[in-house]
Amino acid sequence: SNVAMPAFRQVGEKQLPQEIVFMAWSPKRDLIALANRAGEVLLHRLANFQRVWSLPPNENTGKEVTALAWRPDGKILAFGLTDTKRIILCDVEKPESLHSFSVDSAITYMHWMEVTEENSVLTSFYNAEDESNLLLPKLPALPKNYNTTAKIFSEEKSDEIMKLLGDVRLNALVIGGSSGFIEIYAYGMFKIATVTGVAGSCRGLCLSSDLKSVSVITEIQDSPDSEADITYFQASELDTSLLSSYLPEVTRMARKFTHISTLLQYIKLSLTCMCEAWEEILMQMDSRLTKFVQEKNTTTSVQDEFMQLLLWGKASLELQALLMNQLTVKGLKKLGQSIESSYSSIQKLVISHLQSGSEALLYHLSELKGMALWKQKYESLGLDASGIEEAITAVGSFILKANELLQVIDSSMKNFKAFFRWLYVAMLRMSEDHVLPELNKMTQKDITFVADFLTEHFNEAPELYNRKGKYFNVERVGQYLKDEDDDLVSPPNTEGNQWFNFLKNSTHLKESPLLFPYYPEKSLHFVKRQMEGVIDQCLQKPADVIGKSVHQAFCMSLYKTSRSEESTPQLFKLPFLWNDKTSNIHYVLFTMLDNSISKIHILRRHTDTSRSVNNGILAVEFGNINNSINDTSDSRCYSCLDAHFYDDETVTVVLKESVEQEGKERILAQLPLSSVYTDEDQDGEFIWDSTKRLDEQSGEISTRTVFLENQWRVLENMKAQYVSVNGIRKVSCVLSSNLRHVRVFEMDVEDDGEVEEEEEE
């Protein structure tokens, strides 16, 4: 027979320096994400397997990547770190973290799916998503120059944060961990369910596209006392029908909370920018004066020294030395400019960023409160109006504190300007320089202003020395931005403020829910942390309530493995789960050793329990590929190493010849399901005994022998072991058993009509 072209076209091959422990193809583009043993996350192109970017492991995020998942739109890659128990959402365009959160367990598996369910309520919600964009001003981008922390806003617009929101159509990130930990995050950010009660460590998770059920594969240690060598796999199905029956409400609530999380991130970054705009030079005044106190011999207080200079124009020799030798005229000018530029940057950030961010936050929280009050729709999802009310109040307090900061900046700028102008002239006089006549004019009002500033800001505070190592707090803005202090060093003076006195004396207004509480003693960071804490509580409740409604619908023990012989990373292990969206069937692929041959087993479950055939299981073995030898003894000669669903109709497998000898080849092949499920109900005949593990009754499972015709190719010179595929992009990536050698293929090069398979029972 004529020698056929090998199926599938190889488009790249690489030997990699580090062992690869995870691979995931992008759902939308020819990109593959890899994680390696060193904790790096890499993005490669299909063509020549060229590297696009790499994200090295980071102290803050973590070093041990144990799960990867793409958001269905392919714009965000999520990866889970087991050592720090963090999930990072990373931009596909550049290796930067857009958002991250912690979970309570070591992460072992992630799956990110899109909800395909359509209904009119949802469609109208999807279309109305832009309402808030019409009502709210566009969030201004964070300034370019503070790019160290605000890395995520390196563009001039804040569209980076919008990337995080992504498409309005609901998608869900399902995270599994050790000891039965499962959580579902809507849009990858808002936790909508915390599921408990599943035994073992998650090795596979799959949420059906209608949100009715989650399939889980867990690995359970046989018994706690035995050496943890023997573990067994179990497949369970969880009923999440609360999510599907309240799909529009869940979507709407999740979307709101996603907006809220995004805004909190924006406010946090704005604050970071403000802290960076505040420079250390502003501390100079305080530290110079403190040093002066420590070194001077006279008993006159610093305040009086300056007062004497102001009123009599004469300075003590010590003050002269401080001003002329340490501060200097040049230094004074520089300090004045620093204060001016720094304060005005901070002021701009408060007005444009903090305020617009918090107003948007108030808007979304108020909408959420309205939803919470619509009890018949939202109560059963755990949305709680009183909690949201508290969150609104906390945001209000934050806005008040930001306004207070504006006032402090405002008065500080005025004070420093007048003080520096006076001091500048005084110092020019000391150096007997010519003083320009326009600088010399100082009205009585100006003198009073400076005197007031000296009285209020230049008083020595010994107790401050123990707290801060300085006697003075002339500079009043920094205390709002310093994160280590909950309390302000010099809170604003509220004496004589008519509104405060009015509130103090009015019993009714004190408890009024309409007035946001004001914390005069507290720093901006304290109020922000309080706000984040309260909002966090709001975010937690639905997940617990929805999680409690989830229950196990089905459970079966699959098979036992012994850990010792397996050095391969857990990440690549079969079993593999797949959800066929159109017919809502869950498939589980796994291999069990059967007479030293690994057959591939396919377990399929209809999630719709009304069907007569709910579960079916089949084993598939691969017959001799070149059908020339019709020797039956040779028909079962391939073991399956790895198997993944390529699309709803096809499974991609890596096979090896089971008689292991030199020169035996490994094979990449496509297995069409049509060749396995020939007759609709044939897989229904197996009736398992639920008291036993599946591998104890493997003799009863009917086996199909499949002969691959032309959907296969030999992988020459490669000890292939694992495969990762994407049927949408029609690509596959094969990895060797040493985890360093990679080959990528385009899978359907020529379509010569349907491939006819032969079956033999």
UniProtKB/TrEMBL annotation:
GO biological process assignments: anaphase-promoting complex-dependent catabolic process; cell division; protein K11-linked ubiquitination; regulation of mitotic metaphase/anaphase transition
The record's GO CC annotations read: anaphase-promoting complex; nuclear periphery
Pathway(s) served: Protein modification; protein ubiquitination
Compartment annotation: Nucleus
Where the protein is mainly located, per its record? nucleus
The residues covered by the Anaphase-promoting complex subunit 4-like WD40 domain are 23-114
Among its keywords, does the record have Cell cycle? yes
Entry's InterPro entries? APC4 (IPR024789), Apc4-like_WD40_dom (IPR024977), APC4_C (IPR056358), APC4_long_dom (IPR024790), APC4_metazoa (IPR017169), WD40/YVTN_repeat-like_dom_sf (IPR015943), WD40_repeat_dom_sf (IPR036322)
Q: Residue ranges of the Anaphase-promoting complex subunit 4 long domain? A: 237-433
Q: Which UniProt keywords apply?
A: Cell cycle, Cell division, Isopeptide bond, Mitosis, Nucleus, Phosphoprotein, Ubl conjugation, Ubl conjugation pathway
What the entry lists under SUPFAM superfamilies is as follows: WD40 repeat-like
Task: Give yes or no: UniProt keyword Repeat.
Answer: no
Q: Ranges for the Anaphase-promoting complex subunit 4 C-terminal half WD40 domain?
A: 577-746
What this chain does, per the entry, is described as:
Component of the anaphase promoting complex/cyclosome (APC/C), a cell cycle-regulated E3 ubiquitin ligase that controls progression through mitosis and the G1 phase of the cell cycle. The APC/C complex acts by mediating ubiquitination and subsequent degradation of target proteins: it mainly mediates the formation of 'Lys-11'-linked polyubiquitin chains and, to a lower extent, the formation of 'Lys-48'- and 'Lys-63'-linked polyubiquitin chains. The APC/C complex catalyzes assembly of branched 'Lys-11'-/'Lys-48'-linked branched ubiquitin chains on target proteins.
- Family, as annotated: Belongs to the APC4 family.
Q: What PANTHER family does the entry give?
A: ANAPHASE PROMOTING COMPLEX SUBUNIT 4 APC4, ANAPHASE-PROMOTING COMPLEX SUBUNIT 4
List the protein's name: Anaphase-promoting complex subunit 4
Species the sequence originates in:
Bucco capensis
Taxonomic lineage is: Eukaryota, Metazoa, Chordata, Craniata, Vertebrata
